[in-house]
Model the fold of this input.
Amino acid sequence: MTSIRIRSKLIDGKTQLRILITHPMEHGRNRDKLTNELIPAHFIQELTISRNQKPLINCVMAAGISKDPYFSFMLKGGAVGDSITIAWLDNFGNRDIAEHTVS
Done:
């Protein structure tokens, strides 16, 4: 099961993307409530968005983004049937990818 949920909508010749990613997004300054030890930083470093296998957006991020981040983008152009691919990579080397068809 993927950690990425994607919604899309065509609005006035543009494609609206709404993306929700399930991820802890720890910045490394929080402490464990039981042991009082620092929780290691664990965050998404890179988010990539492609339309029809052509890269559109490459975001380089840091630890300052909240848990389960939500992203919204308005892309120029687009049509019904376009293939949208969302991929992320975190600082532990974990990654996920999801594909979505604009309807």
Observations:
- The chain is about 0% helix and 50% strand.
- The CA atoms of residues 83 and 101 lie 5 Å apart.
- The beta strands are 4-11, 14-21, 44-51, 54-60, 70-76, 83-90, 95-101.
- The radius of gyration is 16 Å.
